[in-house]
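Q: How do we represent a protein-ligand complex in a form that can be generated token by token?
A: Start from the inputs.
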Amino acid sequence: MSSLPLVFEAPRRGMPPSHLADLSTEQRRDAVTALGLPKFRADQLSRHYFGRFEADPALMTDLPATVRDQLREALLPPLLTSITEQSCDDGATRKMLWAGHDGVRAESVLMGYTDRATVCVSSQAGCGMACPFCATGQGGLRRNLSTAEIVEQVRHAAAAARDGALGEPTRLSNVVFMGMGEPLANYKRVVDAVRRITEPAPSGLGISARGVTVSTVGLVPAIDKLAGEGLAVTLAVSLHTPDDELRDTLVPVNNRWKVAEVLNAARRYADATGRRVSIEYALIRDVNDHPWRADLLGKLLRQHLTTKFVHVNLIPLNPTPGSEWDASPRPVQDEFVDRVRASGVACTVRDTRGREIAAACGQLAAES
Ligand code: SAH
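Then emit the structure tokens for the protein with S-adenosyl-L-homocysteine bound:
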């Protein structure tokens, strides 16, 4: 598989120090041995970090005090500092704003539902994909997040959910890569993070791969590569319109990989993994909400993916500062849903959480 074109790779500057969550089980043992400690210290650390969501060595009282200091420095340096935490939707949505060691900002959002708890994580500080309706896209890319910086967002959310941040203590069940950044433009770190998130404790956080969704603008070579990783995560493709002419402006990477190429890659992903692909469609008033686009969307999805392998997730556009674009009126949205369904393709409307704290899809800008 060819590697991604250089233009999609962020500079390496500013990457954080290495951390336990960057390492596989085997690498953790090697790292501990390199510090002159017995291997079992690595397993102890893993049980604290991945099994109990504990990242503070001071609280790991089964480790001798001197060893705790040594391990903090070498393997558990604090990576993300909490800047603010806000909640809304009666406490069912919480947004965390983080600062990296170099000051870059990233956000994650924890959402409680009756049957599950989901964290939406960032994979990059900023984003280089420049979609005009997305707040993150307006600021450009600052840098990739490291594997551990991604895993830390999940570990923190898992601890918070367990400790009652959403009301009743809950188990974190879902992780969606729908925060800041294009996950497949930070490919290796994201895939490693998915492994850390899904491997059973104490190797990883033990969240089922079925509960993990990676959302992409449609970087075709990376979708194909992901299909070969043996990870049964759900792929979400941000399509937003079925025609190349409009998609060239709504999702600028469409100038490189066209709608048909992206849908064919989604089909290959579905074939390789047996998982239904989710098609994301932010419905924008008078921009992409026309009945003919709903019909064309249904037709193309049937053609490229067959109805068994696809599901459309409509997202009413969340307003972003400085944009004149808005969500479609309810009757227009309803007709769009009806038309997609009439073509035999499953279609649901995403519930928009976190709007008033700018925590909804596409609103993460991390200004502070
Ligand atoms: N870069 C990835 C993940 C980021 S965001 C991707 O594009 O898929 C997750 C979803 O939110 C994407 O489908 C994105 O297009 C959508 N989105 C971005 N801005 C939005 C907005 N203002 N309103 C609604 N959805 C938005």
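The longest strand covers residues 81-88. The pocket of S-adenosyl-L-homocysteine is lined by residues 129, 131, 133-134, 178, 182, 215-217, 238, 280, 282, 315, 317-318, 320, 361-362 (CB under 6 Å).
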